[in-house]
Amino acid sequence: MEKFEVNILGCGSALPTTRHFASSQILNIREKLFMIDCGEGAQMQMRKSKLKFSRLNHIFISHLHGDHCFGLPGLISTFGMLNRTAELHIHAHADLETLLTTQLNYFCKNLPYKVIFHAIDPSKEALIYEDRSITVHSIPLRHRIPCCGFLFAEKPRPNHILREMIDFYQIPIYELNKIKNGADYTTPQGEIIPNNRLTSPSLSPRRYAYCSDTIYKEDIIPQIHGVDLLFHEATFADSELSRAKETFHTTARQAAEIARKAEVKQLMLGHFSARYEDETILLKEASEIFLKCTLAKENLSINI
Question: Does pLDDT of 1 surpass 80?
Fold first, then answer.
């Protein structure tokens, strides 16, 4: 199975602590790296996780609070010092280009590569990136400023060829691609060999949803239904429900409710408030609602 791996670089919330870095993740999908959010220290965490800078070409920013994007200028500068030549694509609210361009013009003059901005409308679900193997859709969230999550989904893969059946029917090589994509085979004698005799189904496409920062929002459930892994913010315990509402964040219990109603396969909690020195209180709370959940932590790697 080809790699589909989530690497946590940081899972803390806005206030810096010695326990957690600010929000940032790296998805390794078939050895292509995709960054989600870029809080301070993200590039140092990439080093610790032994993730290759040269394989990172796309960065997705959920919203323009500093704990989700203050690491960008430093990362862009480092890429320049490494003589990067490949384009770097940043997908974010349109305001980021305006805000970041001034800094890049001052601190990162004469970069040897292009930084290309792609504007996202956080209020709408939309296809924001696509290549041969995956799609990325925005997930509209509700926070104090415009904010969205991201749904990374593998494209369906062709069926697996049964080599012994290909040899048995002496099927020429030029027919194999059509068979992998579902076609039957007609022998020179006119016999039709059904595709299900020549192939076995490929594994189901994998999906990962990232939802941070947001108030409890059931509107996202249809879009994330059945995902293999859901990362959902759990900034507070349920005892701080009023604070969660005030700051447009979610409690661990509420995150678990979303996971349960969406029938996801696994839930990962993150974006922890600095007030918790031990986040197991959040895990315990969520586990009462949804059993298959875990806590994010720095340099954690989960293969889907």
Answer: no
